[in-house]
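User: Hey, quick favor. My workstation is busy. Could you predict this chain's structure for me?
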Amino acid sequence: MSTDIRLPAEVKYEAELTALSAADTGQKPIGWRLSPRAVEAYVMGADKPVNGVAITPKYIGNRSLVQVAIATLASDRALLLTGEPGTAKSWLSEHLAAAISGTSRLIVQGTAGTTEEHIKYGWNYALLLAEGPSPKALVPSPVYRAMQGGQFARLEEITRTASEIQDALISILSEKQIAVPELGEILPASRGFNIIATANSRDRGVNEMSAALKRRFNFVTVPVVEDLDQEIRIVTKREAELRTEYQVGVEPPAELAKLLVTLFQELRAGVTKDGATKIKPPASVLSTAEAISVLFNSTILAQHFGKGTVTPDDLLRSMIGAIAKEGAEDVKTVREYCETVAKARGGLWKELYAAGRQQLKD
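Assistant: No problem, here it is.
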């Protein structure tokens, strides 16, 4: 077993990618490892094994959305995955890059501190001072290396980068080249190069993208999951993968996972599933990713500090840390939910209410 905390998609799912490549008879755009159909099968999963290898779904959601994203990447336009936090934008970006380019590791994390060197290139200043500008002294960015190799670069949280960084992207996406005036050279992008960016809709207005940059991207909105059964599938699948990776031996009951997802969906919507009770929604983002984290953390609590079985008490203890990020008001919101909703329901909901009475005191 690897000692790496997290394996990139192309390593973790190498057997699936190899099987799909061997069986792939579809037309491949220049520079692609797989045809668009095979990329879709890798992302969405296949109904039957390919060359004896089961192709598991990486993204559980709208197939049409994935098809549009793949078609965009086969064109000369870049792809921007946008949506609420925790809707699997980065996850989808990683798997698209792994399937198409063979690597998901050419990545720039957008922050307020991202500089033009992260987008274009920098210099090894020791070599620069000793030898002057030279190819050996140049330090290529992930985008630069993607252009060289005809691969995809990933840019996370593009709206968190400053306007001058976004402006640097306009020339790259328009001209498909990077000028290196210090060397008197221009790096043209090899066929197969493209950029997959992500943007958090809650960060809109931090550094709003210019109209010029928006035109270079095709926007695909990754929605919040509203279907209860679909979100339960996502949460339980990913949580099971995490338990395997971290060797946690306690499996949460299926009914508890359903309780958690129901709770998250009702708090997000501000109303119970039957429409009978209105609820004050919290300011915190109760995303699918947060639900996965809460359920997984509950299994660790149960294994090391509990009774060896995941209970609503473990679930609530994990949830408080996730929901209190925006302040104490959100904890009050959960307490009110327990009093107005959980109290009136049976089964594990009664246990959740009892746990809330103990943990969510004023």
